[in-house]
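Many introductory courses stop at the sequence. We go one step further.
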Amino acid sequence: MTWYNRAISDVVATLKSDADRGLTGDEARKRLIEHGANALAEAPRVSPLLLFLSQFKNSLLIILLFGAALSLYTGHLVDAIAITFLVFF
């Protein structure tokens, strides 16, 4: 149902409410029992370590780490440290 396209009086009448006073306490409790709380389900929490490790699924980061390893292998220690620092930063 497209509530945002309907007139306010139509929405109030459909929901059996009052535009000035809202719902009575009894009606609000009844609707809470019938429909449940007006709340979104909480998303599952992801640990910071898994969040950090998931960044390394990116192919560009893998290429940079490979470049850092190659720099280290060829003796360019400063370049290897700089690339590694930037990847982890």
